[in-house]
Amino acid sequence: MKISIIIPTCNEEFCLEKLLNHLSELKEKELYEIIVSDGGSIDATKSIAEQFDVKWIESEKGRAKQMNNAVRIAEGDVYYFIHADSQPPLTCIQDILKATQEGSSIGGYRFRFNANDIRLKINSFFTRFDLLMMRGGDQTIFIKKDFFEELDGFDEQFVIMEDFDLIRRARKKTKYKIFRKSVLVSARKYDQNAYLKVQCANLYAFLQFYFGVNPHRIKQAYYKHLKQN
Predict the structure, then answer these.
(1) Facing residues of 8 across strands?
(2) Could you write out the DSSP letters of every residue in 98-162?
(3) Cβ neighbours of 109 (radius 10 Å)
(4) Domains along the chain with CATH numbers
(5) 155-167 burial by CB neighbour count: b if 16+ within 10 A, else e?
(6) pLDDT tens for residues 113-153?
(7) DSSP SS3 for 217
């Protein structure tokens, strides 16, 4: 069994370099490949990727589209989607293989932020619970190839919340595996915005998603209120 690690990027030169350096410490080289799917970066993202043993694919911007396009060139039996500003445990290959061998078709980790802020530690604590609101792509998502195909992949109309949509559809068919380990996630959103502002924006976006608001409207409202890198 082989795992395709898929990283969607757009102007992620700093985070991508840190992530690829981190992934270079994985030992099971024959068990995985890394695909960087870029959505039109104008910084050094591509030149950073070229310094590592990865596949590079250029795509129309949008994480759902970028990840679906990467799957088309993936050779793995399992897809593992990682945001550029997240770092999974170095046991991720063994964790995923063990989980799939035990019957799991989809899952991810808890997360913790790379910041020593008690409020963010409280956020992280709740990711151990099996609630849709506590999930997301920041925690990374593994999914077996055949199950991904059964779900028709990411729904590209979701220009935001594409990860929640995939997980929601998957949970109607199977249990979502949550590892008792944590992904290290960048707190950059909180560095640029007040804590309460981010919390309110996240909650508002989730409620809009839950009640079926058009994803383009959700994205417009979300980015209107939050500064982004």
Answers:
(1) 37
(2) HHHHTT--EEEEEEEESS--HHHHHHHHGGGS--GGG--GGG-EEEEHHHHHHTTSS-TT-SS-H
(3) 26
(4) 3-187 (3.90.550.10)
(5) ebebbbbbbbbbb
(6) 999 999 999 999 999 999 999 998 899 999 999 999 999 99
(7) helix
Question: Cβ(192)–Cβ(228) under 8 Å?
Answer: yes
Q: Examine the pLDDT at 216 and tell me if it is beyond 70.
A: yes
Contact (CB, 8 A) for 223 and 216: no
Burial of 49 (0-12, 13-18, 19+ CB in 10 A): buried
In sequence order, what are the beta bridge partners of 55? Answer: 35
CA quadruple 73, 79, 81, 84: dihedral sign? negative
- Tokens encoding 229: 């890198």
Residue 131 CB coordination number (10 Å):
9
Q: 78 — phi, psi (to 5°)?
A: -135, 135
